[in-house]
Design brief:
alpha/beta, three-stranded antiparallel sheet, 36% helix, globular
Length: 529
């Protein structure tokens, strides 16, 4: 019997060895996909490490500047591809390994340049603008599918893409420009308008902040005021502002925070109230109409305002490459976009009147009109998620985009056939906030695409992390599976710091049923406002 076991073991080892050799040969030979437009490196086998299984990793370059990477598990592939559309200004290769353990092959791209996610230098290059705008993700998608088919001998059964912020923009570009590329698109906090919203608005806010700067103390006072004035508007005092549009300037009563004569602490100056009112209310044109949407109240002290508006005194490198206030970088973007105009002067730039000319230069980067008819006809599905208290990519911009989509795509009933949007109370930019911001949109999308189960309510978790900087530090290196990254990093947190909340498809909101723990999603239902 001992001899037989040894003999069988030897056979198994031989089969495994031959299998490993075959995998290595298939992986290495992927360089044969190279042609005049594609330079593909020989693939390498990366050994298993922790939860990440052994996989074949392939890198290459398309058209000389578009770098891509594909990772494929040697065992357990479920016929799925997940493409990470990197956030920020891209310019770097994102993570392709986080979902390998779940049977996905992973793919990503640098979006056509290597300047880095915080650099606006790439817009000086007209080719880089176009690659970043729409070519890089599409061409990398096509190449990733070729690589996967060659390695496994079969096409991927299902292709998914997801990203947040700039990555959310890229995901929507795929849906609108190349509707046959993906079966499922997950777009988080999508940048729906670089020049229509982000750049001119950021310049305007930065100017206001320089005139009458808000401080970290100001943000604490504003956050306390928002909670006191607006938490109970939904009938439940739970620390969250469930529907911030109801939390108007009239409700906030910022004048109540103004310093009295001789008061220097615990108050806002008249100038600071003006700055806060401007940021909440948005920028109006000469006709008194909103030209750029403001930021909804709530969680002003949880990092997003600090990152984008005030900065952290004495910490100029909270995120490498950024100054103390991220909005300050947007003036540089405007300058870089206008290099071919010697008359451009940033100090004289009018965010409203000069927007159209800037938009002409940024046209390759902007989303096309929100006409999803071809995407709908392809049978693909779309999930959008967004924080109500997101600072750089404001929730009202996403709502306006949804309205445009309904108008152009056949009405809201048509949109509901293929799309769901989740606007999360007290969620900041892509992560963090005091609400239930961590949610598994990937599983929801897979169930919808592969089993026809359209998502309705989704459970959102606050894993004991509310500050944006803390969440950002936890997400480093986990650009795809950010939900899992945060949950794993906070497993040891005191359960008392964690909570769940029901996330309802917009425009529905979560309603407390009247009994039970208000921090437990089981005690809520979805309903109309």
């Amino acid at each position: 019997m001992k001899t037989r076991i040894t003999f069988v073991s030897a056979i198994l080892l031989s089969v495994l060895f031959q299998g490993a050799q075959a995998s290595q040969a298939r992986c290495q030979s992927l360089y044969l996909l190279s042609d005049m437009d594609h330079a593909v490196e020989p693939g390498v086998i990366v050994p298993a490490s922790g939860e990440t299984p052994a996989h074949c990793q392939v890198r290459g370059v398309i058209a000389g500047t578009i770098r891509f990477e594909v990772s494929m598990p040697l065992e357990g592939w479920k016929g799925r591809m997940m493409f990470l559309a990197h956030g920020g200004n891209s310019g770097t290769i994102g993570d392709t390994k986080a979902l390998l353990k779940d049977g996905f092959a992973g793919a990503t791209t640098n979006s056509g340049h290597d300047y880095g996610p915080q650099s606006g230098e790439f817009v000086k290059d007209h080719r880089a603008r176009i690659d970043f705008g729409f070519r890089a993700v599409h061409l990398s998608t096509v190449m990733a599918k070729r690589v996967i088919a060659e390695f496994y001998g079969n096409d991927a059964d299902y292709s998914y893409i997801q990203g947040c912020s700039g990555g959310g923009r890229s995901a929507l570009v795929e849906a609108l420009r190349f509707p046959d590329d993906y079966d499922g698109v997950i777009a988080g906090a999508p940048a729906t308008g670089w020049v229509d919203s982000i750049v001119p608005w950021g310049i305007a806010v930065s100017r206001k902040q320089k005139e009458h700067p808000l401080t970290l103390e100001s943000l604490s006072l504003m956050a306390k005021n928002s909670r006191e004035k607006c938490d109970s508007l939904d009938g439940l005092e739970d620390g969250l502002i469930s529907y911030p549009p109801a939390c108007t300037l009239d409700v906030l009563k910022l004048d109540d925070l103004q310093c009295r004569q001789g008061q220097e602490q615990g108050c806002l100056t008249e100038g600071q109230i003006g700055t806060a009112s401007f940021i909440y209310g948005g920028l109006k044109n000469d006709a008194g109409e909103i030209a750029f949407n403001g930021i909804y109240p709530g969680d002003e002290d949880q990092g997003d305002w600090t990152m984008w508006v005030t900065g952290i005194p004495g910490q100029d490198a909270v995120i490498e490459g950024l100054p103390s206030s991220a909005y300050e970088t947007l003036g540089v973007l405007a300058q870089n976009l206008s290099l071919d105009d010697p008359s451009f002067n940033l100090e004289e730039f009018d965010p409203v009147k000069d927007q159209a000319e800037l938009a002409r230069r940024a046209a390759p980067i902007e989303l096309p009109p929100a006409d999803f008819r071809r995407f709908h006809e392809s049978g693909a599905k779309l999930i959008i998620y967004q924080g109500w208290q997101d600072v750089p990519l404001r929730a009202q911009d996403t709502i306006d985009f949804l309205s445009e989509a309904a108008d152009l795509s056949g009405g809201q009933d048509v949109i509901d056939e293929f799309s769901r949007t989740y606007i999360v109370p007290n969620m900041l930019h892509c992560a963090a906030g005091t609400g239930g911001w961590a949610a598994d949109y990937i599983t929801a999308m897979v169930e919808w695409v592969e089993n026809g189960d359209a998502p309705e309510a989704i459970i959102g978790t606050n894993p004991g992390v509310s500050n944006w900087f803390q969440a950002f530090s936890l997400l480093q290196g986990e650009s795809v599976d950010w939900y899992g990254a945060v949950m794993r990093a906070t497993e040891a947190n005191d359960p008392a710091t964690k909570s769940t909340r029901l996330l309802c498809p917009y425009p529905q909101v979560a309603r407390y049923e009247g009994s039970g723990d208000i921090k437990n999603a089981d005690n809520y239902t979805c309903g109309q406002r």
